């Protein structure tokens, strides 16, 4: 019956975690999957999360199905965090927001919705992008194309080529973009570049699909949401998938959202209905526990302030690790330019290491990167950063 089923080759990111867990070498370092570890190498339980969850445990009650669109207070909190509580798009009710199973659930449900109502469109993703973007949108039935993005020569952005490409795309082309803290490169558009790109998106009638999985890991919660807010300001209709996996350290609780910015509250009502239909056909309804924690934190001023402060600490630690690794590499290999560690932002940096060098890092030094050369900076610590620099220098020599 299943003779024709091929063996699974593994996921370029998630399967590395399985290999890492099996690795018994005491000096192993995980710089592959996009998970934030603290300086002790532990996956943190945020104080604001612990406080909210402890309070919720006093309110244990029945666990019926949630509505297909999720909890109303969660959805409202997602909109306020993404767009700002006073944004006209929020106050006018023209955003359709659903609670989803992580940011992944938002991308998948949005992909299915788009395939149903924009079936002739094609999808354009940055070159490179998160490994799973292609799988998700091809899985929804779209042809997936690349637009120029990362400049390997400079470790920066090929913005002029990206802009020129957007100017050629047919109306209703779906352009998948990262709000901030680009995965895998850490290279973002500046606010000025977004201000140049957004009029082209509007003029061409493109459909932006913004993936905001790292809000708070760049410059801050407000700064990192510049792109969706600027798109909404410009009256563009677009999709925004967001994730709380990293910013709440609640990866396994699957807390995400999908917002569709529409032209009116009436339009948002119809879009919401069809998003519910897409949810029903995927997983029926979203989970309760994790999203209740997120809602409690986002809706309680003192918890929100504590969470924001903890996120700032996480952001600051990542920045400090970037600086420490850069300094250690510059000392070991003075002739090479590692400035990209300082200019790239968020959880990831694109090291430019070849797959073979990444393999050597793993096999000879027990340092794990994704084979694309992506490094998760959040896996560095004051204990291992010198060792990682030494290992990188060894394979680069
Ligand atoms: C850009 C982006 N979007 C969405 C997700 C999925 O988030 P979630 O809310 O957990 O469904 C991830 C996860 N990225 C990390 C883990 C993974 O690959 O799944 C990573 O890139 O390592 C992203 O990096």
From TrEMBL:
The cofactor named in the record is:
pyridoxal 5'-phosphate
Q: Which Gene3D superfamilies match?
A: Aspartate Aminotransferase, domain 1, Type I PLP-dependent aspartate aminotransferase-like (Major domain)
Q: Which family does it belong to?
A: Belongs to the class-I pyridoxal-phosphate-dependent aminotransferase family.
**Annotated CDD domains:** AAT_like
Task: Specify the enzyme's EC class, one word.
Answer: transferase
One term under GO cellular component: cytosol
Q: Which residues form the Aminotransferase class I/classII large domain?
A: 27-391
| InterPro entries reported for this sequence | Aminotransferase_I/II_large, Asp_trans, PyrdxlP-dep_Trfase, PyrdxlP-dep_Trfase_major, PyrdxlP-dep_Trfase_small
Q: Which domain of life is it from?
A: Bacteria
The molecular function terms of the Gene Ontology recorded here are: identical protein binding; L-tyrosine-2-oxoglutarate transaminase activity; pyridoxal phosphate binding
Task: Write down the EC number.
Answer: 2.6.1.57
| Keywords noted in UniProt | Aminotransferase, Pyridoxal phosphate, Transferase
Gene Ontology biological process terms in this record: L-phenylalanine biosynthetic process from chorismate via phenylpyruvate
Query: Whose protein is this, by species?
Result: Pseudacidovorax intermedius
Q: How does it assemble?
A: Homodimer.
The name on file for this protein is Aromatic amino acid aminotransferase
């Amino acid at each position: 019956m299943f003779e024709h089923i091929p063996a699974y080759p593994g996921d370029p990111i998630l399967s590395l975690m399985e290999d890492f867990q099996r690795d018994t070498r005491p000096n192993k370092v995980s710089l592959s999957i996009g998970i934030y570890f603290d300086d002790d190498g532990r996956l943190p339980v945020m104080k604001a999360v612990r406080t909210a969850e402890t309070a919720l445990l006093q309110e244990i009650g029945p666990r019926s199905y949630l509505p297909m669109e999720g909890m109303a207070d969660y959805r409202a909190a997602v909109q306020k965090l993404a767009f700002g509580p006073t944004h006209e798009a929020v106050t006018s009710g023209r955003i359709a927001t659903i609670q989803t199973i992580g940011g992944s659930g938002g991308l998948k449900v949005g992909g299915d919705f788009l395939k149903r109502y924009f079936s002739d469109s094609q999808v354009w993703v940055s070159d490179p992008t998160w490994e799973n973007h292609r799988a998700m949108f091809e899985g929804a039935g779209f042809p997936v194309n690349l637009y120029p993005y990362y400049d390997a020569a400079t470790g920066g952005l090929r913005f002029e080529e990206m802009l020129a490409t957007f100017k050629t795309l047919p109306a209703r082309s779906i352009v998948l973009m990262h709000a901030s803290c680009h995965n895998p490169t850490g290279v973002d558009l500046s606010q000025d570049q977004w201000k140049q790109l957004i009029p082209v998106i509007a003029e061409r009638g493109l459909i932006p699909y913004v993936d905001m999985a790292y809000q708070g890991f760049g410059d801050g919660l407000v700064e990192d949401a510049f792109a969706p807010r600027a798109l909404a300001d410009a009256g563009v209709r677009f999709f925004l998938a967001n994730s709380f996996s990293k910013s709440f350290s609640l990866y396994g609780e699957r807390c995400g959202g999908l917002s569709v910015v529409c032209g009116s509250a009436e339009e948002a009502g119809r879009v919401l209905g069809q998003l519910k239909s897409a949810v029903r056909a995927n997983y029926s309804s979203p989970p309760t526990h994790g999203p209740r924690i997120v809602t409690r934190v986002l809706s309680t001023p003192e918890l929100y302030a504590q969470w924001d402060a903890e996120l700032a600490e996480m952001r600051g630690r990542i920045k400090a690790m970037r600086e420490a690794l850069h300094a250690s590499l510059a000392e070991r290999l003075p002739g090479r330019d590692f400035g990209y560690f300082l200019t790239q932002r968020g959880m990831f940096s694109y090291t430019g290491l070849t797959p073979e060098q990444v393999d050597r890092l793993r096999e000879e030094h027990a340092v794990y990167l994704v084979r694309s050369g992506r490094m998760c900076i959040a896996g560095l610590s004051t204990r291992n950063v010198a060792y990682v620099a030494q290992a990188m220098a060894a394979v680069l020599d």
